């Protein structure tokens, strides 16, 4: 059964989003536990990476240029479009929050499933995650919601737990534990990490189902915005990197399209306003169908060469 889930993981992630929508009670029951799942997945993903090679990748300027494209560029575009379109402060804050969000820590596994360089995707993911606090501070500071002002102590503690914590623990384990021992342990645990990934689409979409029950037209608007955001992330990034080849461009594009909205919510919480969680829930559908579409795009582009 586990082998089947791993083999068809890309499709199963999308199906989990649909199941979460179909069973909102179960989805909402799982939601409070997702931060713990997130921390565990981030830690296991980092431990499984060769740290020295990863650090070398992170020292390359191209990774940080990508991180600026991933957040600063898109946030600027969305801010201008939001003002021109007359979006409410709540919806604009939610959209900018998504723009600030780093890549999913499951992205390297998705990129590996496509046969591409997972280490490159991991470096991009870490870089976008590290600049998340700065990128996230801007919309929260300039678009304050009625839920309260920014508590720097709580904000800092959450940053330490969800970003610094997994990185520091992983680095320490690589220093203290022999590599062979660490790899043997990971070989036993890593097949089960896919089950952790399935929890995100299932547990996050419940908030969107709540909006759907209250107002279907408004929910459809949120879904259209979510699809548009993921498409813009993917297509624009693909165009930016197209001159570097299919593998590089698709790796960057899918890394940009996969957004770790749970991490953003875990750090900022209600400061992101009432529209963020429903939008984050709506994004589960396009986010988890994106790898399936990307696999088809990759095959199509390869056949054309």
From TrEMBL:
Transmembrane feature ranges: 32-51, 63-85, 91-111, 123-143, 155-177, 189-208, 220-241, 262-281
Superkingdom field: Bacteria
UniProt keyword annotations, A-Z: Membrane, Transmembrane, Transmembrane helix
Name recorded for this polypeptide: Sodium Bile acid symporter family protein
Organism per entry: Marinomonas gallaica
Lineage: Bacteria, Pseudomonadati, Pseudomonadota, Gammaproteobacteria, Oceanospirillales
């Amino acid at each position: 059964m586990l082998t089947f889930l791993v083999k068809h993981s890309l499709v199963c992630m999308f199906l989990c989003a649909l199941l979460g929508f179909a069973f909102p009670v179960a989805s909402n029951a799982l939601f409070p536990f997702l931060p713990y799942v997130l921390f565990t997945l981030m830690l296991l993903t980092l431990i499984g990476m060769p740290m020295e090679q990863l650090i070398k990748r992170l020292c390359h300027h191209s990774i940080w240029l990508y991180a600026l494209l991933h957040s600063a560029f898109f946030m600027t575009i969305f801010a201008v479009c939001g003002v021109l379109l007359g979006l409410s402060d709540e919806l604009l804050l939610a959209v900018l929050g998504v723009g600030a969000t780093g890549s999913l820590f499951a992205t390297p596994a998705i990129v590996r499933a496509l046969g591409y360089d997972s280490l490159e995707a991991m470096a991009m993911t870490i870089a976008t995650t590290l600049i998340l606090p700065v990128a996230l501070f801007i919309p929260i500071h300039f678009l304050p919601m009625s839920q309260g002002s920014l508590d720097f102590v709580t904000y800092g503690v959450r940053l330490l737990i969800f970003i610094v914590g997994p990185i520091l623990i992983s680095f320490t384990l690589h220093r203290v534990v022999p590599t062979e021992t660490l790899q043997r342990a990971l070989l036993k645990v890593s097949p089960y990490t896919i089950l952790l990934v399935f929890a995100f689409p299932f547990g996050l979409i419940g908030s969107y189902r709540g909006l759907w029950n209250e107002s279907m037209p408004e929910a459809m608007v949120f879904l259209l915005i979510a699809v548009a955001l993921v498409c813009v992330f993917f297509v624009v990034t693909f165009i930016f990197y197209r001159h570097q080849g299919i593998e590089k461009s698709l790796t960057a594009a899918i890394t940009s399209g996969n957004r770790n909205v749970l991490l953003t919510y875990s750090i900022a919480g209600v400061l992101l306003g009432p529209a963020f969680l429903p939008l984050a829930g709506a994004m589960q559908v396009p986010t988890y169908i994106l790898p399936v579409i990307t696999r088809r795009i990759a095959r199509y582009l390869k056949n054309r060469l």
